[in-house]
Amino acid sequence: MLVAERHEKIVRLVNDRGSIRVSELSDICQVTEETIRRDLDRLEEAGRLLRSHGGAVSIAEHQPEIPYIEREITMMEEKKRIARKAVSNIEPNDRIILDASTTAWYMASIIPDIPLTVLTNSIKVAMELSTKEKVEVISTGGKLAPRSLSFLGPSAERSLDQYHVDKVFLSCKGIHLERGISESNEMQALVKKKMIGISDKVYLLADTSKFGVQAFTYFAELKQINEIITDDEIDALQVRQLQEKGVAVTVAP
């Protein structure tokens, strides 16, 4: 494959997925990770994508949501480890929120059948919890977004106003030290902002591809996040910078 062809393929993959890891591009393009890093540097200089820690993200002004079926397999092992760590923070009789992220769905699949109240805007999460007799599930309702299998819009936001919970577990598209937490979709961002507002403690579930990324719509400041749970690819400098801003960082082994 010629260099120019490889560059076009990389840009197409980044735009299709919204973000992608260096290791994935190396496997797909059959070149070394060092070659991919050089490619990404050149493509960023050309204004065709944005570099992030461990990969690249699309610079499309408004990225469409990645279909749920594709998000299920992207960074799957990292998300499962993050989910397992997140579940360890749940205690009997907690009132919690799980958002419509795939990591929250992985959480739902391994939450034990203990007395819990779970508020969610995710069809997948609600279905996963439906077999657990002691878990009370409350759905927000709202407009169904088929790509994310989530309920969004004013009705979903108004329904959240009725509740107060102990903990919220949610994900995002980007974590930026200066610009905060962001999403690719404004409707998702508004629901997540509301979720944070009704929760005592906020857990952000984010694999390392999300760090250094500014997605389309901001929805929270770093100081609103109590704890970030991430994978073991995060480097010590990022952990220290987040801790300096008052955010606890937990690495899922």
Task: Walk me through the structure.
- The protein is of the alpha/beta class and 253 residues long.
- The protein is 38% helix and 25% strand.
- It has a seven-stranded parallel β-sheet with strand order 6-5-4-9-12-14-15, sandwiched between helices. A three-stranded antiparallel β-sheet has the order 1-3-2. The chain has a three-stranded antiparallel β-sheet with strand order 10-11-13, with helices on one face.
- The longest helix is centred in the first third of the chain and has 15 residues, at 3-17.
Instruction: List segments where confidence is low: pLDDT < 50 over at least 5 consecutive residues.
Output: none
- Mean of residue pLDDT? 90
Discrete helix count: 10
Structural class: alpha/beta
Radius of gyration: 18 Å
Give the ordered list of helices and strands: HEHHEEHHEHEHEEEHEEEHEEEHE
Report the sheet with the most strands, covering strand number, pairing sense and barrel closure. Answer: 7 strands, parallel
Cα-to-Cα separation, first versus last residue: 37 Å
Number of strands: 15
DSSP strand content: 15-25%
- Which strand order do you get reading across the main beta sheet? 6-5-4-9-12-14-15
Q: Outline, from the CA principal axes?
A: globular
Helical percent range? 25-40%
